[in-house]
Records
---
Amino acid sequence: MHIPTRQLPARAAWLKIHLYLALTGGFFFALIGLSGSLSVYREELDELLNPQLLIKAPQDPSGHDLKYPSLDNIMAAVQAAHPKRYGAWTLEMPQSPERAVTVWYEKPQETYFEYYAPLMVSVNPYTAEVVANRYWGQTAMTWLLDLHTQLRLDRLGWNLVGLLGGLLMISIGTGLYLWWPAKGQYRQAFSIRHNAGMIRFAVDVHRLVGFLSAVTLLLLAFTGLQLSYPKALETLLGSPDVGHGNSGPAILSTARPNNRPVRLEEAEFIARGPFPHAALRRITTPVGDTGTYRVNLRQGGEINQKHPMTMVWIDRWSGHIKEVRDPGAFSWGTTLTTWMWPLHTGEAFGATGRLLWFITGLCPALLYISGLLRWLHRHGMVHDRPIQLSALRPAIQNFQKQLCRIGLTLLKLLVRLAKKAGQYAPVVKAKALLWLRRIQQHPIANRK
């Protein structure tokens, strides 16, 4: 498959688009990428900076690990430490025996008027001892995550990050178009010439890193755009509001209040009835006489690790199950919507995916620096100079060969995908027309 991009008259226009996007948005692409890379390992870095969050699992005299105390004991310790905080609390269970239980309080008085700054209470799950009280945005890693998601600019920043995600997709598309090699020059497209000067080296690194990271960067940019504007994909796919952070519908308790409300431990036990093999992830306490327990469980097939979509609502007075949400019964459109968060964070692919996402997040900074170096050289602000890499030449050559193999394999895969896309074009067209009709029939589209 050959695309003669070098002979197309539009190449100069695409080059200008790519250049202007890099000059105006490149710094923000790099900033969001670097903060996203560190956020992949946010919990591990948070524990490194705050050793008190690491819990050593005690053992009984027989040498076996002790079990957690009841959820009610953990919640009692939190309420004793914060007796004047009324409303819902959410207990988030640790996914490792060395981690604390995190209990969330969404709108504390101290940060009530901030965009998002809940109280995070860390509790030793074995002793029910409160080990830390912190507010979101006032710790190093939550501050960094806010920088990644909304540039520390609240709702405006959230929208800007989504816009930057769309611009990054355009930048990647134009970069691939400009990179595409002429016939017979595929090996040259994957080469890094370290003996032709600093600028040539920077250009080769820019082209190669851009190609190798294009697919994962496109996925991250698309999922980031969707997380900033979740209603767009939900409307397009006709799925309900099940995006990341959605707590589900408002389900109320209907039983008559009594002097024996359901306890946390009992609510968890009841919620496991429909899903006996699921793991507990979160449980939210009821508010007022009509509040319900909301229990988040994770079934084996869910790719959402921290925020699974299996939910059970329990009446706080009778213990009856009021509502169940089972991802196994979702339509394909709703399932795709729920995949956006785990795809963006890399948790959908396990430890390998997180590492790949960490490396990918570093690529925009490398692309920005190498591209900016080339631009400064063209405008006479930076002078070229030789690179002395003689001692590293064998390792570089071996690395170059491996990159060539990977690049050629990816290129063949792209060609195959393009051919398959042609086969499925009629199906995609029919789906697109169906979505278009749904959008046209939507009440918002018909509003005058």
---
Amino acid sequence: MKRLLALVLACVILLGAAPALAIEECHRVEVTKKDTTQENKSFIRRWKVDTVLDSVDEELAVIADEYVERLGPTLQKAKNNTNSNSRLDVVTRHSRTGLTWMSFLVQARVTYHRDLIGQEITSRTFDMTTGERIWLTDIFDAESEGWAILEKAVREQAAAYWPEVTPDQAALEEICQRQNLSELDFTLHGMSLVLHIPAYRLYPEKNTLLEITLMYPEIRPYMTEKARVETDNLAYYKTCALTFDDGPSRTNTSLTLNSLVEAGARATFFVLGNRIGEYDDLVQREHDEGHAVASHNWNHNNVSKVKASTMRAMVGKCDTALIAAIGIPTRYNRVPYGLYNQMIKAKTGWPLIQWSLDTYDWRDLSSKKVLWRVQQEISDGDIILCHDIKDNTPKSAAMIAEYLAEEGFMLLTIDELFAKDGVELKGDKVYYRCVDGDTSIKKK
């Protein structure tokens, strides 16, 4: 997929133009995947991105191919032909910000019997009109107070993983040295800069990622002028959050995650606590691929029939399961059936996230009808309700993400959606959406 030079140059022109109405041509990416079964029946899936720039494609391909060539031969012999035994997934995620910048994260994940036994990452950020690589030193100049904010975030957020375990202090000090900090893998998103640190660097034998997130409103004052322009997404795009309930589901959650990789979109997954143990590999993938993971209670039951003490005890159960999977507890919750009054009365202490646009996919609507509901009802700041256990959801997710991008929306996680307006999520309070700080139910 190679664009004409005129299309690429259009991004430069638009820097001084009115707010964007659709995805910029320089941000367009096609994503494909190739599956290979090795002689010992181990499985390799290699994802490929095709952007407007050959130079970017070639650099990312070299990184991905090196992972395949080096890690492929190390895969253990599979016991049967299913791809759950021994596999390597090399995925290149992409995300956009501003009118010309894009970030890519190449992830190589090695699993055996669905257990994550190794993970390596390499990130790149480029100006997609020139091919110039963007470094953290292009975002914060040498004297910027932003470096101190980054260091503080690394120290605090890294320590928040596996709360009962202390991270390797010597390794943490090494990471936080200015030179090493400036060389960390990072990606830029709709409303956040994320530093990616392999967990094993601070927590031996852990193979997930530590995602150190800094929201733009917190750090934009300390950025370079160019970086401020390329992170001012509220000036160019409308925003909303795509959310999924009731999972994980072995097939449909996996396929939904694939759809989000292809779209370069991040979402929020509200997972059931009693499903985390069986599907911890999917929860890990949700987290490591940049999505927010939150709670949907322990069981999908009617809380009006549950004792308050049982609901309060449930918080600890959900947190314990989530920490075991990804290292961090839930930051907010969505109540099954939206019965938040009972949760508030029980004083569970969770911020309670509702929705402002119901796709009604839970009625087993076709993907076309699910998209139609989004087309009819979407507005700035909406929280879209979907369910990743439904058969049509993988296709619906792809269609929704594509439509919203073309309509000038940028998909945010729930954390980003509220952070853009400086809204702090508080326990036992209900949130339906977020537009200009308004979190109330949307009026019809």
---
Amino acid sequence: MAVDNTLSPHGGELIERVASANDAAHIAAGLPRIPVRDSIAREVINLAYGFFSPLEGFMVRSEVDSVVRNMTLNNGLVWSIPIIFDISRRAMAEAGVTPGATPEATSRVSVLLTYQDQALAVLEVAEAFSYDREFMAQNVYGTTDRDHPGVTRTLEMEDMFLGGPVTLVNPPVINPPFDRFWKTPRQLRERFSELGWSKVVAHQTRNVPHVGHEWMMKGALLSSEADGILVSAVIGEKKPGDYIDEAIVLAHHRLREAGFFLPGIHETSTLMWDMRYAGPREAVFHAIVRKNLGCSHHMFGRDHAGVGNYYETYAAHKVFENLPDLGIKSVLTLEWWYCPVCQGVAYEGLCGHRDQKQDLAGTVIRRIIDGGQEPAPTTLRSEILEVVRECADKYNAGSAFVTPEYLENRTPVISMPTLGCCTCSEHQPV
């Protein structure tokens, strides 16, 4: 099903593969089951609702190889991150999937992917294959160093992969407080239309916003001459020390509630994505996904999607120089800091007091949040600190940062209803 929108999705068509309520049980009936972990469930949902358009499912081997080697799909369309479903040989055998099945096979095996012991989606297996994971890591991340979290993720995958289209048969329930902010690409495009936005700049984030982030958004909004800014908060795999998801989303929303942005120019949303920390490659991926959401522009600052010292500071700026027009414009920003001479937030491209700058680094903000002190309004808005501390108390026993207890006890972002159980408001899926 295609969506007609001025801001065309990647490849020209917004892919939606969600079975109707009437067809879902029939499609899923009698199929062998494969339970999937959190990260695969999120990928399935993104595929089904078109976040990853033009993909219709998990990549087959030739598609993976093209992305890994050339950063394109088989049809030449730019794509930078493999979207893959890894599986053990034992799980394949239990589901009746034979290694070596190829896209040319005349008959395909369909399996029911389950999550939280409930039906999730049907995968039509087009191919079962293996791939050199070290080669994948080297090409996607530029390193095979296991200290890189994306490399570790890749090297620890199972040794087989299943490729083929997926159809969502049991839409998930999005739990509070995320239910207010999660929208499918179609829903976001409809929201932009309601707001009268024809030009939208996306802000990718996995952090609580400090004043530097605020001014980066305002600068991007002005320089792009966009109608509004979409905060696209990444909700995915968490590790100890990360901000808790609730604080990230609600703190960004508070910026608008507190009047730092007018209601008509600022929206907060969530993207269920597990960061790969792939630097420039992930920057390209982020641009493609936000294009699918209906954004016309995407901002990229220093160390976008980077980790450690694996990438140049502005590698995410340079990667677009050698790519064809993606249909979404990059808004490239330098660093924002606090300048005691200018007595406020300053921009690297304007401020002449570099030797006196005070970084608005994550460690500084974390000290404020952990230390119980009131921040200067030039570093972290008191309104933001208030909501972060509220989230810490409500969701994580007083800490705004991920702990083992948070990972064990948190309310999941999504819950799976029983397939076709009811249509009451308590269990109504997206």
---
Amino acid sequence: MFDEIDVYHRGVSLQKKKDYDRAIESFSKAIELNPKYTEAYFSRGNVYEEKGLHEKAIESYNAVLEYNPNEPAAYYNRAVAYAKMGNKPQALADYDEAIRRDPDYSKAFFNRAKLRLRMGEEDAAIEDFSEAIRSNPKDPEPYVCRGLALANQGKYDEAIEDYDMAIRVDAEYAEAFGNRGNAFERKGDNDRAVENYNEVIRLTPDDSKAYYNRGLVYFNMGKYNQSLADYDEAIRLSPKESRLRQSRGIVHAKKRHFDKAILDYSEAIHLEPKNIDARICHGLALVSLKRIEEAIEQYDKAIDINPECTRAYHSRGVANGLLGKNQQAIEDYSKVLQIQPDDANVYCHRGVVYTKTGNIKAAMDDYTKAIELRPDYARAYFNRGLVYRIAGELDRAIADLSEAIRLNPTHTQAYQNRGLAYEKKGDKVKAKADIKKVKQLQRSR
């Protein structure tokens, strides 16, 4: 005759073998034999949790706490189940109870920190990660997670210190190297970023994300061949990932290999039809090959997917302008400004189209608005100055073109048009000086 302890241990053995249904039967039988057998309730709750039956797990943990209300592990496990169910307030309350009963409960601090991050409570999460480190300084994971939270706050040096500590604890911890690489990348230290991604690849040579990250850094460094090689390897490892094809397409486009770029963008869209960025990149590559109508089709599809996608409207506006469809271009730019009314670049672009249509007042209004939004916007000053020159308002033209030159001292067209304005005013000395400057700039290129 088996007693409840024998039945319980049989359940433990079955649990280790992942024979969960029979394990649950054994733990339930042990509970029938001894209704206050908290270890059996606890283990049954764990098996339910492994099966994803969170509510049943919680019922078992409730029973543990009914007979042993000071058991911190039961609060902790119940908190995990509540968190997986999306019940964040109850999960947080249970982590609180687990920590109140065991102030050195590292896992409880750690999981409460992750929950607080999901709730947007970054500072509180960082405090909890610090407590997890205090409780168990030999666990590298809280260092990495605290580093990530600090990096999200822009505290890259502090984040790097945490990643350093994680690596001291575990010199083979690939995630710490990867996150440290991200922090160096965000600081603009590309060489150090590459060094860290090299370590990730050494430790986990089948990690496509590491090749992707290193490829991105190489791209930012202008090392396009190395970037392509990394994206090739990332795609070999993860051939179904749309963003990898898109990223490789961007490198091909940068190298002006637009046909290759289009092949990659097409495959990215095939893998993920709702990949708006890939569709916009596809359109830009098509524009570069003068296949503008095809580009507009891609922008149309992007807008169908997301009617608020300003990049798609903007790109379509440029394409319509290239086709001479000025009214459609104006409508596209106007749609962007409905969504984000503080975009100086779009005001400037729409001003150009208004200028082409002869609507000088609307063009001037747009250039002026662009300058109000961005007082250092040389292109807007140049465009407004050019319109003033054409309209015969020479002093205003000279003032705007001079400002464009101040902001961009190598702006050849601004010197050229200011020279024409001076010539029309009869100031031949200044006109000659500007034309001379144009020739100097052209020779230096």
